[in-house]
Amino acid sequence: MAKKIALAAVLLLTPIMASAQITDFKAESYQDENGNELNYRILKPAEYDTSKSYPLVLFLHGAGERGSDNFSQLKWGVNRLAIPEMREEYPAFVVAPQVPEGEWWSNLRTEKGDTTTYTVPLREDPMEPMRLTIQLLDKLEKEYAIDKDRIYVTGLSMGGYGTFDLLVRYPEKFAAAAPICGGGDLTRAFLLEKTPLWIFHGAQDEVVDVRYSRKMVDAIRLAGGSPGYTEYPHADHVGAFVKAYRDPELYKWLFSKELDR
């Protein structure tokens, strides 16, 4: 109990403490057979032992962290998984790809001010960064001792959309997911009926309307699912994912999930 209280206290500290550990994420680059490239960072378990198997957390960043520096994607949220106490409590691989400037995780687009329809429905083929990310996951699963029954995905803002995008394409791949300040294709919400989900949003979000998360929650529930949903009544866009990633219950919940094959 004392250990968990100490971990909760660490998570509530300022982001400076977490940012001091982000250099533990190793810079890497993935190339497909045609030379298409995806920058990413990877954090390995602190005491990596190839005789064991470890969960993997895929983190999808927001639009403001796009680029080619292979560093900006660590700005929000994911850096908390590099805190020594977190690495001890939850030994895992953490992978954070970076979307190039001007590109997107998901090809789903919303009409500004419209919370009922999408101007471009989710298309059959994923966006290029997502396509490469899917290939990257397959590559990492072959290279490292990764528990295929404990692969998780979380993302914020643009990455929240990306999380839903990835889940409906591979609904049986991920043991759990936490989309934050995002939205998804309501017509495919039925595919997420059995996926353990904890969705977060701020009621005062000025960037991604909170109704996008509300509608996804309603659609998944209508299909028979039971997603968790936390709406912060006074949080704006950034405030919501800061609060979500500081919540020790999120990690306790996430790492407790395992695919039932």
Question: Which helices and strands occur, and which strands form pairs?
Answer:
Blueprint: H1 2-11, H2 15-19, E1 26-31, E2 37-43, E3 54-60, H3 84-89, E4 93-98, E5 109-110, E6 118-120, H4 128-143, E7 146-156, H5 158-169, E8 176-180, E9 198-202, H6 210-222, E10 228-232, H7 237-246, H8 248-255
Parallel strand pairs: 3-4, 3-7, 7-8, 9-10
Antiparallel strand pairs: 1-2, 2-4, 5-6
Mean pLDDT: 89
Number of strands: 10
Give the helix level as a range of percent. 25-40%
So, the CATH homologous superfamily?
A: Alpha/Beta hydrolase fold, catalytic domain
CA-based shape: globular
Order of helices and strands: HHEEEHEEEHEHEEHEHH
Task: Report the span from N to C terminus.
Answer: 32 Å
Report the β-strand fraction as a percent range. Answer: 15-25%
Number of domains: 1
CATH class: Alpha Beta
Please state how the strands of the largest beta sheet are arranged side by side: 1-2-4-3-7-8
Q: Based on the structure given, which CATH architecture is correct?
A: 3-Layer(aba) Sandwich
**Biggest pleated-sheet summary:** 6 strands, mixed
Radius of gyration from the CA trace?
17 Å
Low-confidence runs of at least 5 consecutive residues: 12-18, 115-120
Structure description:
31% of the residues lie in helices and 22% in strands. The chain is built from eight helices and ten strands. A six-stranded mixed beta sheet has the order 1-2-4-3-7-8, with helices on both faces. Strands 5-6 form a two-stranded antiparallel sheet. A two-stranded parallel ribbon has the order 9-10. Strand 7 (146-156), helix 5 (158-169) and strand 8 (176-180) form a beta-alpha-beta unit. The radius of gyration is 17 Å and the shape is globular. 40% of the residues are buried. Residues 12-18 and 115-120 have low confidence and may be disordered.
